[in-house]
Amino acid sequence: ARRLAQDVALAVQAALLVRTAPAAVHDAFCASRLGGDWGHAFGALGAGVDFDAVVRRAMPTA
């Protein structure tokens, strides 16, 4: 049951990001959480991730 709840939560997160976030953000999320494109250390993502766009989204200017 826990695995099912985890999978449903990830699917809902991905769906919301696809609808509301810039492509770089939802692409990175889907690749790392759904596609398994992540490294063995926390925060490691694939080479195709637009890190600058993800960081800009996380730190908007005032």
Describe this structure as you would to a colleague:
The protein has helices at residues 2-20, 23-34, 51-58. It has 62 residues and is mostly helical. It has one domain. It starts with a helix and ends with a helix. The model has no long low-confidence stretch (mean pLDDT 85).
Our measurement of the CA-to-CA distance between the termini, rounded to an integer number of angstroms, reads 43 Å
Helix content: 55-70%
Order of helices and strands: HHH
What count of domains describes the coordinates? 1
Give the biggest beta sheet: none
Which shape, going by the Cα principal axes?
Answer: globular
What is the residue-averaged pLDDT? 85
Low-pLDDT windows of residues: none
How large a portion of the residues is in β-strands, by DSSP E?
under 5%
Q: What's the β-strand tally? A: 0
The assembly state of the depicted protein chains is single chain
* Class by SSE composition: mainly alpha
**Computed Rg:** 13 Å
Number of helices: 3
